[in-house]
């Protein structure tokens, strides 16, 4: 297996509209730069490219346009190129907002496509490596939907006094990822980290919400690189209802969260290196796939120009993509928006791969996506979901079909039904 990577600055000019909060929020200062980081993995037969961008999200049309451009440069199918965003709220507006389409930063997107194309052209210095994975518990997030015993949801950003009650609610605490190591020195040369929490640590009242920043994903990358010398990518997981425990508390919260996750990642790297039989992926291969699912739009969204972006007008249904990129025993599931953690966990639990991670906004930005019971409880995420209550189940089934297809392709000799018969006191054979 060989890898090559790029890292490109994508910071907008100060004064650009910021995404994620008020429609008229303009940046007044720069706290730290935004980046697009890309990793190309070549197993000798197939090749995939994953790109993570410090942006709140990207429209489906732009994702498809970039996939076509980058796949053409690399000579791979379009489904082998995944774009995902870290979901920082203190970057430029790169999604079409139905009620304010003029705020889409089109000139920025035009330049961004050129930057990504240049990055892809620079993927020439491939290094031989081995691959392993890691999974660490990291208690740094919480559910922002406080749901009471009678199943009514309260949005904690508007009710901070109930935050302590959220400790009993579900939160995906997994900090996981992949480590690529030099075949000669065994030192890590690239690390991917995945975690579910909105990058809202630094959005303090006043100035904090008006500074351009990658938020904690940038600190995470810097911490990992500074302490390992390896390149680093952050991929946001199923964070639709996940926020940092210290959200909206300024740049100190950014630093604390980024470093806490960075420490957890280093712990995972240590564990994977010292237990290669459990975490190593000898002769790992890569593959990719895109499946689609069609679901009805909710009545309040269908053909409503004030709520639904123009490309989705004219139909009562919407067809969306789920993208899967597999790296040996690990799979990344790219979803079309802000997947709530409970539904993300369903995908993980039903996956046939050793570990499965969610990649936010990889195929479209179609707002929030959660389970049907969210509609019963109500709250912000349910109110904002564009497709019907059953849509979450269709997304889940779509993702699982792709996961099972890739598992069968990569491990044709493995009978998944027989795996349960392996004695528990014997280490699993990943080879």
Strand content: 25-35%
Order of helices and strands: EEEEHEHEEEEEEEHEEHHEEEEHEEHHH
Roughly how many Å apart are the termini?
14 Å
Q: Return the average pLDDT rounded to an integer.
A: 94
Describe the sheet with the most strands.
Answer: 8 strands, mixed
Molecular shape: globular
Order of strands, main sheet, comes to: 5-4-3-1-6-10-11-13
> Would you count the extended β strands for me?
20
The chain-level structural class is alpha/beta
Which runs of at least 5 residues are low in confidence (pLDDT < 50)?
none
Q: Into which percent range does the helicity of residues fall?
A: 25-40%
Radius of gyration: 20 Å
Q: Quickly count the helices.
A: 9
Which labels suit this protein?
431 residues, alpha/beta, four-stranded mixed sheet
Structure notes:
Helix 3 (216-228) crosses helix 4. The protein has a domain at 286-413. Helices cover 26% and strands 26% of the residues. It has an 8-stranded mixed sheet, with helices on both faces. It has a 4-stranded mixed sheet with strand order 15-16-17-19, covered by helices on one side. It has a two-stranded parallel sheet with strand order 2-12. The protein starts with a strand and ends in a 21-residue tail after the last helix. It has 431 residues and is of the alpha/beta class. Strand 3 (35-42) and strand 4 form a beta hairpin. It is built from 9 helices and 20 strands. It is globular. The model has no long low-confidence stretch (mean pLDDT 94).
């Amino acid at each position: 297996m060989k890898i090559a990577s790029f890292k490109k600055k994508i910071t907008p000019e100060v004064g650009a509209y910021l995404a994620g909060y008020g429609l008229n929020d303009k940046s007044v200062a720069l706290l730290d730069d935004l980046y697009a980081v890309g990793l190309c993995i070549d197993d000798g037969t197939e090749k995939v490219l994953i790109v993570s961008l410090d942006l709140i999200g990207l429209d489906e049309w732009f994702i498809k346009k970039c996939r076509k451009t980058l796949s053409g440069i690399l000579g791979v199918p379009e489904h082998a190129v995944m774009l995902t965003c870290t979901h920082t709220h203190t970057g430029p507006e790169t999604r079409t907002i139905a009620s304010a389409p003029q705020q889409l930063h089109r000139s920025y997107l035009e330049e961004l496509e050129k930057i990504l194309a240049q990055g892809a052209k620079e993927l020439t210095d491939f290094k031989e490596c081995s691959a392993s994975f890691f999974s660490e518990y990291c208690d740094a997030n919480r559910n922002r939907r406080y749901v009471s015993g009678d199943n009514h949801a309260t949005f904690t950003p508007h009710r901070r006094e109930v935050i302590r009650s959220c400790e009993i609610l579900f939160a995906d605490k997994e900090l996981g990822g992949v480590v690529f190591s030099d075949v000669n020195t065994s030192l890590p040369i690239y690390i991917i980290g995945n975690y579910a929490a909105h990058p809202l640590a630094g959005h303090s009242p006043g100035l904090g919400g008006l500074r351009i920043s990658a938020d904690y994903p940038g600190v995470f990358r810097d911490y990992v690189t500074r302490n390992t010398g390896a390149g680093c990518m952050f991929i946001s997981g199923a964070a639709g209802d996940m926020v940092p425990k210290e959200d909206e508390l300024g740049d100190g919260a950014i630093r604390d969260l980024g470093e806490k996750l960075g420490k957890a990642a280093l712990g995972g790297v240590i564990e994977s290196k010292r237990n290669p039989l459990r975490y190593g992926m000898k002769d790992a291969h890569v593959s990719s796939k895109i499946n689609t699912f069609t679901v009805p739009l909710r009545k309040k969204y269908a053909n409503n120009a004030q709520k639904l972006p123009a490309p989705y007008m004219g139909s009562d249904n919407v067809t969306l993509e789920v993208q899967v990129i597999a790296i040996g025993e690990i799979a990344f599931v790219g979803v079309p928006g802000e997947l709530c953690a409970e539904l993300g966990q369903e995908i993980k639990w039903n996956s046939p791969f050793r570990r499965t991670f969610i990649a936010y906004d990889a195929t479209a930005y179609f707002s929030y996506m959660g389970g049907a019971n969210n509609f019963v409880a109500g709250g912000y995420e349910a109110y904002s979901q564009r497709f019907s209550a059953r849509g979450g189940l269709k997304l889940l089934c779509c993702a699982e079909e792709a996961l099972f297809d890739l598992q069968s392709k990569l491990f044709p000799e493995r009978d998944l039904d027989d795996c349960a018969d392996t004695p528990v006191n014997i280490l699993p054979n990943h080879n």
